[in-house]
Amino acid sequence: MAKQFDVVVIGGGPGGYIAAIRAAQLGFNTACIDEWKTRDGKPAPGGTCTNVGCIPSKALLQSSEHFEHAGKHFADHGIEVGGLKLDAAKMLARKDTVVKQNNDGILYLFKKNKVSFFHGRGSFVRAAEGGYEIQVTGANEEVITGKHVIVATGSNARALPGAPFDEENILSNDGALRIPQVPKKLGLIGSGVIGLEMGSVWRRLGADVTILEGLPTFLGAVDEQIAKEAKKAFDKQGLKVELGVKVGEVKSGKGGVSVAYTNAKGEAQKLEVDKLIVSIGRVPNTIGLKPDAVGLKLDERGAVIVDDECKTNLPNVWAIGDVVRGPMLAHKAEEEGVAVAERIAGQHGHVNFNTIPWVIYTSPEIAWVGQTEQQLKAAGVKYKAGTFPFMANGRARALGDTTGMVKMLAHADTDEILGVHIVGPMASELISEAVVAMEFKASSEDIARICHAHPSLSEATKEAALAVDKRTLNL
């Protein structure tokens, strides 16, 4: 007889493993199915984020930043470095160690919370008495039954038409994280989060990097003023970004990759590189899920159709994270996972899409929450804006990193904060104050009146709030 569970989660990425843990905390007999594995076949839960996304990319970003600081910036601090060299294999090995620590941490959390873990691919079999039968295909084949099923199967990298990933010359985020040696010339298609982060890693390590972007504007989803500031910094670093291009034929061979394209002026161009990273977005992953077996509805993109509470068209079947609508962000998936587990328990799960922070971990970092200035203008919302540059911040000067600014947008009448946008040092950490403020519907005056530690980067947030009322103190 199939093992019976109250909740079965298909997928062990940030959304899936968090959903499973929260369900177990709420007293449900819970199982989580995940097929990621290490090269020696051992379980590697954590999904794209842990294995070939957020975690390993941050490890390489940190390593490459250390390398660049040692080569270009330590001398400013009176630290002389001689004979600087790169051990790429050791750098990649450290990245792999960081990933494994996270994999092992998730397995420990499953054990701690009494979540039954099944290593393999989960597929729907049929609706059955007591819920749904799920086939686990892996080293040990078995069928389990779940009263509630949470689909958290994530997403896959989108390939260029006619140029499939071989992970040797034409790379997805997976291959981009394990290039064995620094390429002399590196090309990227797409200047989104993955493109900019991977481009930054390999540029810092010595590669000549060119990014081709189809859109005419740089970081169109980012506040325009912030995007322009970031672009200036990337240009200064030598990260070449061509906008408004149309990519044509891509040829891959022993000598590398050739990309034919037309530039913004309509002129035919060719880019010859050793490696090409393609980062043109991601697509929902339902490979092997067999949704038709139970009548689970997908949309034209292949995403599982859900309502505002992550309910699918089937009773007691839910879906979260990258495989559904909304931003493809690990922390969004986590929040949905917690919310669904709590809804199953009869509680009121909470996810506010308007206060989900976005971060690009380049240098300078870019982070934002809420609406951009161009969005407010388009919607006809009356607003006030306040900015404060890190150039005028004491802690930033001491760090030696004064690029960028904090920008705050507040409603002209009520002063409620509508958006906060940061480009500069530690923006990924600074944005949390703005998220908290917006979640509690704070005004810019509230932030302006809160005491911030001195000297700290967070003082720039306070000063941007003061600037909304045109009363900055340090500018």
Automatic annotation (TrEMBL):
Subcellular localization: Cytoplasm
E.C. code: 1.8.1.4
Binding site for FAD: 58, 122, 153-155, 322, 328-331
Domain Pyridine nucleotide-disulphide oxidoreductase dimerisation residues, every copy: 356-465
Superkingdom of origin: Bacteria
Active site (UniProt): 454 (proton acceptor)
Reaction catalyzed: N(6)-[(R)-dihydrolipoyl]-L-lysyl-[protein] + NAD(+) = N(6)-[(R)-lipoyl]-L-lysyl-[protein] + NADH + H(+)
Keyword DNA repair: no
Keyword field contains Aminoacyl-tRNA synthetase: no
Binding annotation for NAD(+): 190-197, 213, 281
Top enzyme class: oxidoreductase
Co-factor note (free text): Binds 1 FAD per subunit.
Main subcellular location: cytoplasm
Cofactor dependence: FAD
Entry similarity comment: Belongs to the class-I pyridine nucleotide-disulfide oxidoreductase family.
Miscellaneous: The active site is a redox-active disulfide bond.
Name of the protein in question: Dihydrolipoyl dehydrogenase
Taxon lineage: Bacteria, Pseudomonadati, Pseudomonadota, Betaproteobacteria, Burkholderiales
